[in-house]
């Protein structure tokens, strides 16, 4: 069997060192800590920076873990532990609200529905697990956008699609909506993806309070929202309670 690849071992050691530290580290500090030649450490750091696993501060020249690595680290949680931890709470939310419940996580600039509980009635419904929803036109997506600047940046690469006349399609409108989500702690959609349908969602947080997903209800606009377009206080309360419960199970003790 072939032996370990030294360059990969060294790269892994650098990432562990940056993850363990409380702040940014310079090339010299990293080289000294790992007993590497400064040139070797610099070459590995430049490679890791090229793939987004580390970032360099422009002012100090020091390095820290990059957004790509942080997202990679939460991807397993998003699609596995997130779903398994949230299943019971999602079932309870559907029973209390009388509406369909979906749990979403970010995937390639969209919202991946990782769990879906049908509305508890006899109506014909379609399972949405695996469906990709637009970030800017869904309550789940607005929550994810509000707490992830990389997702916001992905919308700037093209013109957001208008699904209805109510869809937010300008960067200004989307930015304003994200600010409201952060301020209120929840998001609402009302006829923005499908005319006559609405949704309410709240963030699911993991360790350290990092938002790893969203949970929400969806249904007919007249049931989910008030006549003025604001979310039903009863449903909003149920959604926020469920989001806090899942977050606590994931280790976010503050929620």
Describe this structure in words.
This protein is an alpha+beta fold and about 260 residues long. The chain contains 9 helices and 8 strands. Helices cover about 45% and strands about 20% of the residues. The chain has a 6-stranded antiparallel β-sheet with strand order 5-4-3-8-7-6, with helices on both faces. Strand 1 and strand 2 form a beta hairpin. The radius of gyration is 21 Å and the shape is elongated.
Alpha-carbon distance between the two ends:
48 Å
Unreliable spans are none
Number of strands: 8
Estimate what percentage of residues fall within beta strands: 15-25%
Shape: elongated
Alpha-beta content class: alpha+beta
Oligomer: single chain
Short summary of the structure?
The chain has helices spanning 6-20, 27-34, 38-50, 67-97, 139-146, 149-155, 171-184, 221-224, 233-249; strands at 54-56, 63-65, 100-107, 110-117, 132-133, 187-190, 197-205, 211-220. The protein is of the alpha+beta class and 255 residues long.
């Amino acid at each position: 069997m072939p032996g370990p690849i030294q360059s990969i071992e060294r790269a892994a050691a650098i990432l562990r060192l940056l993850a363990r530290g409380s702040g940014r580290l310079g090339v010299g500090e990293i080289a000294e800590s790992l007993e590497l030649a400064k040139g070797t450490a610099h070459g590995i750091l430049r490679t890791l920076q090229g793939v987004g696993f580390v970032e360099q501060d422009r002012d100090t020249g020091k390095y820290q873990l990059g957004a790509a690595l942080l997202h990679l680290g939460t991807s397993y949680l998003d699609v596995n532990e997130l779903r398994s931890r949230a299943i019971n709470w999602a079932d309870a939310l559907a029973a209390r609200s009388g509406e369909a419940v979906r749990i979403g996580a970010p995937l390639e600039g969209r919202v991946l529905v990782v769990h879906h509980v049908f509305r508890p009635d006899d109506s014909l419904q379609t399972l949405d697990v695996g469906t990709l929803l637009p970030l800017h036109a869904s309550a789940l997506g607005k929550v994810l956008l509000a707490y992830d600047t990389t997702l916001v940046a992905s919308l700037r690469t093209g013109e957001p699609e208008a699904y209805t006349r109510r869809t937010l399609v300008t960067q200004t409108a989307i930015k304003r909506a994200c600010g409201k989500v952060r301020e209120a702690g929840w998001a609402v959609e009302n006829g923005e993806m499908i005319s006559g349908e609405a949704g309410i969602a709240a963030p699911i947080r993991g360790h350290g309070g990092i938002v790893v997903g969203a949970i929400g209800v969806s249904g007919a606009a007249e049931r989910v929202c008030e006549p003025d377009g604001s979310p039903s206080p009863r449903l909003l309360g149920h959604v926020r309670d469920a989001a806090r419960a899942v977050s606590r199970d994931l280790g976010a003790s503050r929620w």
